[in-house]
């Protein structure tokens, strides 16, 4: 039985690597944000608007606990998921946690492309986005650093890099 949780800042490549790894290893894949959206039949953005961040984080925690009961699964987390409640300790007890590290410059470049879909970023200028990423990464570092394993998330920008990262993760988790 295998459970792998991919964590890191939004835009780090958690969904990209998770989906590719799950396919290569014939495992189930859950993107926690999409899982929440499917269950509630609303977008994360709508849930944020209706319930605020606290309401969203409670839903996220509940569905994380549900997803963490599945077997042979890779779960891609929202960027903030490890930073609330006991989520990080819980995941470390349920399976393997892998932190996808990226520089603020890589994250900002990626996030600028889809910031309208991300409730916490939608109204930020490029400069505000950089400031937000740098400051939020500092706040989240202590949580992310509790991950059992680390990988370079910056190397997920081509099919070749994704394939190489799948192999790297396979070796890291001894599969």
Which features characterize this protein?
175 residues, alpha/beta, Rossmann fold, five-stranded parallel sheet, 7 helices, 5 strands, 13% strand, globular
Brief write-up:
With 175 residues, this protein is an alpha/beta fold. The chain has seven helices and five strands.
Would you kindly provide a written description of the structure presented here, covering whatever features stand out?
With 175 residues, the chain is α/β, with parallel strands linked by helices. The chain has 7 helices and 5 strands. Strands 2-3-1-4-5 form a 5-stranded parallel beta sheet, with helices on both faces. Helix 1 (14-25) packs across helix 7, helix 2 (32-40) packs across helix 3 (44-67) and helix 5 (104-114) packs across helix 6. The termini are close together.
């Amino acid at each position: 039985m295998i459970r792998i949780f991919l964590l890191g800042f939004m835009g780090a490549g958690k969904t990209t690597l998770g989906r590719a790894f799950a396919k290569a290893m014939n495992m189930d894949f859950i993107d926690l944000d999409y899982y929440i959206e499917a269950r509630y039949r609303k977008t994360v953005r709508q849930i944020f608007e209706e319930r605020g961040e606290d309401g969203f984080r409670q839903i996220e925690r509940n569905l994380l606990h549900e997803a963490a009961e599945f077997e042979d699964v890779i779960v891609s987390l929202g960027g903030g998921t490890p930073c609330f409640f006991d989520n990080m300790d819980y995941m470390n007890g349920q399976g393997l946690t892998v932190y996808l590290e990226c520089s603020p410059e890589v994250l900002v470049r990626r996030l600028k492309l889809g910031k309208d879909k991300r409730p916490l970023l939608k109204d930020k200028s490029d400069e505000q986005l950089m400031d937000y990423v740098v400051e939020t990464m500092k706040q989240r570092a202590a949580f992310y650093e509790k991950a059992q394993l680390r990988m370079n998330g910056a190397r997920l920008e081509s099919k070749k890099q994704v394939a190489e990262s799948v192999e790297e993760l396979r070796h890291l988790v001894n599969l």
